[in-house]
Amino acid sequence: MHMSRLRVDVTPGMAKIRHPRIEWENGARLQVIIPLAGKGTRLRPHTYVTPKPLLRVGGRPVMSYILDDLVALGVDEIVFITGYLKERIEEYVRKEYPGFRSHFVEQAVQDGTAGAVKLARPYIDSECLIIFVDTLFEADLSLVKRLPPGDAGVIWAKEVEDYQRFGVIVHDADGYMRRIVEKPRDPVSKLANIGLYYIRDWKLLFEGIDATVGGPKAATGEYYLTDSFQYMIDHGARIRVERVEGWYDCGQPETLIDTNRHLLVRGAARPPRGGNSIRVHDPVRIEDGVVLDNVELGPNVTIGAGSTVRNSTIRNSIIGEDATVEDAVVHDSLVGDHAIIRGVAGRFNVGPDAAVEGG
Fold it and tell me: Which letter does DSSP use for residue 190 in this model?
């Protein structure tokens, strides 16, 4: 990790000291668009009351990792495209990140990623980043200052083996995007589109978005932002493809738990500060005010503030705040705030204020 490099890093507590600010020439600045209107259905029941970007991983809300890095990059203006539980998002951003000039635009009709980004148009008048916060990533963003003058933008990608699950990016011999193929049967590319973009030619982007939403919808009933990028390329734009060093999904229970492990290993771990008869298998993160009595914890366990765990074993799980786990064996589980797990053993996905108790 070199101080001279500019990257979006998922390690908590480091982002604020690691990134040099980007100094733009001729008064230019970097604006950011963050679409987050989705309902997070794959993370129910937790997302019934908490929007997906505010679910905690490694002890912090998912979107806080991105926002901390944007602070460190010198970004001061963000357009948030909201929808489901939009008040919670706005309240969190205004309270925790008052330094941003934040705009909140509701996507009342869920008509796809192109429709979402189109809503940011009244606020965008310079080059921009577009970031989807379903994932955390490690990417070198300093290259946006080193791009050749003729380049219109950058799309970041991660090489994957299960390419059939993703939209993959096909590029030419010089590393410029040719097209994106959704969930290919054949390995035309293994570079998955991760939802991180830098657009220098923002006027052509919105021209492409207008063309996309002015045409027919995809089979899913949505307008895709990737079709707008294709419009840019078809009209002569050169969009560079860059690989990320790490990409960590937060969009479903099992991947959220896996990402939690990565964050704990990378620096988010926090040992218990007290308790009775505790056996720990690192890494774990135990917040303040947690009561522990005759427990075995880890590996990969995060327990939120104010929770109580007695006579129990927990591994590979995220436990919310003010939760209770007693006389239980819990593994590979998500347990919400104020939830109760008592007298049972197994894998659980328990929402806030819910209870699972044995007979």
Answer: -
